[in-house]
Amino acid sequence: MSLFLTPPTPAEYAPFYHTYVRLITGDPLVALREQPQQLHQLLAGLSDEQARFRYAPGKWSIKEKLVHMLDTERVFAYRALRIGRGDTTPLPGYEQDDYVHNSEADARPLADILAEYDAVRTSTLHLFESFPAAAVDRRGTASGQPVSVRALVYMLAGHEAHHLQLLQERYLPALT
């Protein structure tokens, strides 16, 4: 049985993250297990050229979006690790646009990004599944805001759900 069946309260995360938390209505670990299949189905048959597509000027390409999802997953998982292990050191934020720009994602093969995605997700699932019950309610500070381990798993799954939705609604229809 998952330790994460009870959603976090608003006191467990910054208001900005409600957009993501609200997207997860069941067990976030189930969502994290199902999302890789959804992503691979969405991107099946996409060429490297197509994966450099941006639906509007100034928007990230599909490859950049995927690397952003990976970066965010790593950051959220690292925060969960630190907080879940009882580390009370305030954790810094990160500037997503700088990360995306410096990733040079468009120069990478899509297949490599997807293989990395699978490896990161496997690692993330192992981490969240390894937490003892006491770790779920532990709270810390990230980006100057309170956050719990419970909230981080919901934020992570919701962040991914948000980006999968954007791929379905804005990117892929424009490619056909």
Automatic annotation (TrEMBL):
Organism annotation: Hymenobacter amundsenii
Transmembrane segments: none
Protein name: DNA damage-inducible protein DinB
Superkingdom, natural source: Bacteria
One Pfam family from the record: DinB_2
Any coiled-coil regions, as ranges: none
Start and end residues of each DinB-like domain: 31-166
